[in-house]
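step: validate -> pass
step: tokenize input -> pass
step: predict -> running
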Amino acid sequence: MERTKIGVFDSGLGGLTVLNEICKYNTGLEITYFGDTARVPYGSRTPETIARYAEQDVRFLLSRGVEAIVIACGTVSATCLDRLQSLYRIPILGVIAPAAKEAANMTKTGHIGVLGTKATVQSGAYAKELERVRSGLTITGIACPLFVPLIENGFSERDPITELTIERYLSPIRNTDTDTLILGCTHYPFLAEGIGTYLPGVKLLNIGTALAKTLRETIPIRACDERSTVSYFVSDDDIAFQTIANAHLDAIAATDLKKINIEAY
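step: predict -> pass
step: emit ->
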């Protein structure tokens, strides 16, 4: 039986956390993953630049014959999901709506923290979606611009620099009634242990897990019990991409990376 072809893209290796969850919860997919390692991070760019990069990413995946696309990037999901959905005729999913729905169900105190890139937090996309799902919530958005560079450059969550950065960003909510924290950038699950240690008792939401659980509800997937397959593409040579993927992710090993010129799309 022909497999359902899905495209997944992110600014770098963070989207691998989404890919990992997709493969856990969905079998029989033929996945093309693209990490824009030459232009990471997206979160510090202008909305216009983010949209241009995202459109090129989508056009590359379309050239691979995909039937649906998952935006494994919180920044793109927050700033230009509607634009991409209006430009292209195939299903395009972002990570925000599934995460907001799950977080609203998880919280008991009604106080939810949202960690994200500068662009994601400034967009207010998570706050808007959370309010749509459940009114009356208290939402604290925290921009964490150094998290992505630390992860992309191989700093572990136990590194003293990483620990100090976590403390710097999260100290405002440490002794509050925040009980649920959305890791609103797909890179951030790589720091989940360190964040959880600093915020004991706070439930951390991996946005990739939330999306993966709802994928079959939004994209027609042909039944197949075989393990999903993945083809990996990057826009620049990146040793950390393969090293971190194989060290931390258990779904599909990143053993063969192909480099493309994304500016050609």
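step: describe -> The first strand starts at residue 4 and ends at 10.
step: cleanup -> pass
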